[in-house]
Write a structure and sequence with these properties.
Blueprint lengths: L1 E7 L2 E9 L5 E6 L12 E12 L9 E11 L4 E7 L6 E8 L7 E8 L3 E10 L4 E11 L2 E2 L1
Antiparallel strand pairs: 1-2, 2-3, 4-5, 5-8, 6-7, 6-9, 9-10, 10-11
GO molecular function: integrin binding
InterPro entries: PKAT, PKAT_KLD
Pfam families: PKAT_KLD
């Protein structure tokens, strides 16, 4: 066992290293330590308030476009991810993530393409460096129209 001590700012730090029969090494430190803690609000809630089909030309009919209008509470998001799954929300078909710039109010439009008609579970996640929040919707896409 070895010991080492140092004096700084009128506090004493003692470090002891001890061999462990299990083959590891433990370090014990006694003294005064401080750190800073930042409390952040985070993204508290996400809501899909509107879903609108975008009319496309006949040549694009196989890719139905839907605009999702999304709001949130709390801090402003820096990225948005959309996960499209089967109607039971169990089998993921597609996940798309994009950075977003939201300035004053958390209100944004997310446009996504659906390759074929059908019913889908859509999860939209808004995130920033410290938090994420999720909203889900069940959407039926039928030849360029959605409900």
């Amino acid at each position: 066992t070895t010991g080492e001590s140092s004096n700084s700012d009128s506090s004493t730090t003692v470090e002891t290293t001890e061999d462990n029969p299990d083959g590891g090494c433990h370090i014990y430190r006694n003294g005064y330590y401080n750190t800073g803690i930042s409390v952040v609000e985070g993204i508290l809630e996400v809501n899909i308030i509107q879903m609108t089909s975008i009319q496309t030309t006949e040549s694009q009919a196989e890719n139905a476009l839907v605009d999702f209008v999304v709001t949130c509470q709390g801090s402003l998001p820096t990225d948005v991810c959309t996960a499209v799954s089967d109607p039971t929300c169990q089998v993921s078909k597609n996940v798309v993530c994009n950075p977003v710039t939201v300035t004053d109010e958390c209100l944004l439009t997310v446009r996504r393409a659906f390759e074929e008609p059908g019913t889908y579970c859509v999860n939209i996640t808004l995130g920033d460096d410290t938090s994420q929040a999720l909203a889900s919707a069940l959407i039926s896409v039928n030849g360029g129209e959605s409900t």
